[in-house]
Write a structure and sequence with these properties.
24% strand; alpha/beta; 10 helices
Length: 321
């Protein structure tokens, strides 16, 4: 039986990406090079990557079973487990300039009640019984308490699945506050998110990966199994109980950074289910992230578009086991 990755996207979105022919100018009328639309959300993106890599996956999110969002994902080969929604799926807009600079305009989503969240959690826990990894990804919808992800992580401790969390702002801060009781097996902050709850400066982390590793190590010391810190053009840092490593981003022409962090997270998970060492997981993470940045919109790279063999992984200060 193939390892399965179950993803949770509590606030899914239809992602519309517009690519400009020149730099974005406020107040101006500009020509568009292209417009794309795709069913998305951070967890959904990871499920897309899993299908491409021939890994079993199930995507859990709130939606009507007959929603075009569900039909699109099923047509892409993604097994969907929709839970009762509070309203229509939101639309997110990404504006991409020729140099890869991306401006995101994200709508909030429908207001949820406690019943909606309970239905979503029950659906997820049911699917987690057969999963190698459960990924909790993205923002929470309006009405959800910031601590909801922490509650779900604690509930998932009763299943055999390992748990990864990729979120930001209030939900991320609440998860950190709930450590070690709600410690996941993997957290994937970017440099800005890491700085927001451990202090420090995002720019310093990008220039000095060892500083990012020191900051991430505080989470490992509080019970988190591994921390993958994505640093944009500076690559990524991985810290576990056994050590810390850095890998620079692979040479690429940046087209769009939308989905690059999701792809990096998937690369790590792929390395893990293949039994890879921490450096091998990090190499796959930066390979997937770099490949995603070279593709338009929220396009998720296929395995043949990634080149982990080109990643230069360097050991940083070792960590006490």
């Amino acid at each position: 039986m193939k390892p399965m990755i179950v993803t949770l996207t509590p606030n899914p979105s239809t992602d519309r990406t517009v690519t400009l022919t020149g730099p974005l100018e406020r107040g101006a009328v500009q020509r568009l090079l292209s417009v794309t639309m795709q069913a998305g959300g951070k967890g959904v993106n990871i499920s897309r990557a899993a299908v491409s890599a021939d890994l079993a996956t199930e995507a859990v999110f709130p939606a009507r079973p007959d929603d075009p969002f569900v039909n699109e994902l099923m047509a892409a080969g993604i097994a969907c487990c929709p839970a009762p929604p509070a309203g229509d799926i939101r639309i997110n807009l990404a504006i991409t300039e020729p140099d890869g600079t991306t401006t995101k305009l994200n709508s909030p989503g429908a207001m949820v009640s406690a019943n909606h969240l309970d239905d979503l959690a029950v659906t997820l826990l049911d699917r987690a019984a057969g999963a190698a990894w459960v990924v909790l990804a993205g923002s929470l919808p309006p009405g959800a308490p910031d601590g909801w992800y922490a509650e779900v992580v604690r509930a998932l401790r009763g299943t055999p699945a390992k748990v990864a969390v990729d979120t930001s702002e209030g939900p991320l801060a609440a998860l950190v506050d709930a450590l070690p009781a709600a410690a996941p097996d993997l957290m994937k902050p970017n440099g800005e998110e890491l700085a927001s709850f451990v202090g420090g400066d995002e720019d310093v982390f990008e220039k000095d990966p060892a500083a990012a590793a020191d900051a991430a190590r505080t989470l490992v010391e509080r019970g988190v199994g591994a921390v993958l810190v994505t640093l944009g053009g500076a690559g990524a840092v991985l810290v576990t109980g056994a050590g810390a490593w850095h890998a620079g981003a692979l040479p690429t022409t940046v087209v769009s950074t939308v989905g690059a962090g999701d792809s990096s997270l998937f690369g790590y998970l792929l390395g893990d289910v293949r039994g890879g060492t921490p450096p091998e997981r990090l190499a796959l993470a930066v390979a997937y992230g770099s490949a995603a940045a070279s593709l338009p919109g929220t396009t998720i790279p296929e395995p043949g578009q990634t080149h982990p063999e080109q990643a230069l992984v360097k050991s940083l200060t070792s960590v006490e086991s």
